[in-house]
Design a protein that fits this description.
Number of strands: 9
Radius of gyration: 19 Å
Shape: globular
Structural class: alpha/beta
Largest sheet: 6 strands, parallel
Bound molecules: pantoate
Distance between the termini: 49 Å
Helix content: 40-55%
Amino acid sequence: MEIIRTVAELKAKLDTARKNGSIGLVPTMGALHAGHLSLIQRARSENDTVVVSVFVNPTQFNNPTDLATYPRTEEADTAMLREAGVDYAFIPSVEEIYPEPDTRQFDLGPVAEVMEGAMRPGHFNGVAQIVSKLFDFTRPTRAYFGEKDFQQIAVIRRMAELEGFDLEIVDCPIKREDDGLAMSSRNVRLTPEQRAIAPAIHRTLESSLDWAADHSVEATKRYVIDEINSFPHMQVEYYEIVDALTMQPITDWEQTESAVGCVTVFCGDVRLIDNIKYPKRK
Ligand code: PAF
């Protein structure tokens, strides 16, 4: 595996690789865990060349403390990438990616206006900035994203359509710890007591599937919020049940072919997200 730090070198290597077949890109912010590994393994099995980017993108953080405390573990990350058979690890500096401020504003539309878009102003524009740069530098055949960030995938699809990128965006299922907690780089910031409680998020979402069978959308939302908030340290920021394609909140189960419940919970000061798919009703 080669570690590449500059855009020029990355482009040169991939120009050669492209002549020999497909390129799979896995964009990450590092602090890699088994969830990332599952994306990398999928990319490895479907492409001739695999590139993993490791870059904590400052423009997508709307909270300076979150950016400052985001875990950075380059040595462990490169060891994991090597072990996983990655060809190129792209690990640039902030100056390399943003030699000057990126002032682009993407017209991401309604998919980016709700949930994370409403709670974290500017976040999705920052995601669109970095992912569009990565797509541009690597021109991948396929790019892999985890469904934990369910809304992010819809936003990236919209950005790719706006910018005319010709690639396959592959969404990959959430990887969970044995106790159900969705894997996240932020989990390491949980205290042992918070870590013990955090699996209640997934447990509650799972139990809401039964509840939803004979309750309204509104009552199901109330159930999830009240249940999670009943645990110490836990505070739901939002729970929305949305259409899986448009990300727009639904008020009636019959309104969509595929409903997804998306939750954000503060566990202490650690912001955790998760989601669940509800079975089709019509
Ligand atoms: O999901 C993430 O880790 C980030 O938002 C991404 C897609 C790597 C862009 O920085």
